Amino acid sequence: MDGQGATADPQLQQFIEVETQKQRFQQLVHQMTEVCWEKCMDKPGPKLDSRTEICFVNCVERFIDTSQFILNRLEQTQRSRGSFSESMSD
């Protein structure tokens, strides 16, 4: 029973980290939606004019680039933590 508890704890921590990252990502999407809407949408209408459409496209592209950068950085951090953990257990 004790052996299972020791192995389940890191798994639980991993699960919590992943869920926390998902929550942060969802918050970021919500914030970027607000930012892009406020920045690009002058007045809602039946159609987007070309300036508004370009603004939304640029805003979303910046969001995607930023998100990709953040995800890559998180992966690097996790890998370096994993390498550190492995070296500590040796």
Query: What's the alpha carbon Rg, rounded to whole Å?
Result: 20 Å
Helix and strand element order: HH
Helical residue percent band = over 70%
Number of strands: 0
Number of helices: 2
Low-confidence stretches: none
Strand share of the residues? Answer: under 5%
Q: Report the end-to-end length measured between terminal Cα atoms.
A: 24 Å
Q: Describe the sheet with the most strands.
A: none
| Overall 3D shape | elongated
The helix/strand class is: mainly alpha
Mean pLDDT: 83
Describe the structure.
With 90 residues, this protein is an all-alpha fold. The protein is built from two helices and no strands.
Question: What labels describe this entry?
Answer:
single chain; 90 residues; mainly alpha
What would a concise description of this structure say?
This protein has about 90 residues and is mainly alpha-helical. It has helices at about 1-40, 50-90.
List the helices and strands and how they pair.
Layout: H1 2-40, H2 50-89
